[in-house]
Amino acid sequence: QVQLVESGGGLVQPGGSLTLSCEASGSDFVLNTMGWYRQAPGEPRDLVATITRGAVENYADSVKGRFTISRDNARNTIYLQMKNLRLEDTAVYYCNARAVGGSPLRFVEIWGQGSPVTVSS
Question: How do strand 77-82 and strand 29-39 relate by DSSP bridges?
Fold first, then answer.
């Protein structure tokens, strides 16, 4: 199976920066699109950014120009560089991966454990 381990969340002041990391582990699976989602208290889980295996990026309008997603296929790791953070960016950030593999062959979708990001003065 595939497991995702996140790191990098924390407390930051408005205007500050944070970088989240998500490393995938597990054999027999090929990682396809990976991404970041976030969930604020009382809100649904929303897309932040995704990146395909070929490095095509997609962003929510609310983070365009401030967040950058990147990917290191050799390390099975994605990153989310967050700049100019705002109060409304406060949420739990979840890593997501879609993969194919195993025996019998199957498609799977995996979530990380969640990394709290708090933007507060």
Answer: unpaired
Measured CA to CA, the distance from residue 53 to residue 67 in angstroms comes to: 19
Task: Please count the helices (runs of H) and the strands (runs of E) in the chain.
Answer: 0, 11
Which of 72, 71, 2 has the alpha carbon at shortest distance from 36? Answer: 71
> How many residues appear in the chain?
121
Cβ pair 69, 35 in contact under 8 A: yes
Please give the Cα distance from 94 to 114 (Å, whole number). 4
pLDDT tens profile 28-79: 889 999 999 999 999 999 999 999 999 999 999 999 999 999 999 999 999 9
Beta strands 115-119; 10-12: pairing state: parallel
Q: What's the distance, CA 51 to chain centroid?
A: 9
Question: What pLDDT is attached to residue 1?
Answer: 79
Phi and psi at residue 75, to the nearest 5°: -100, 0
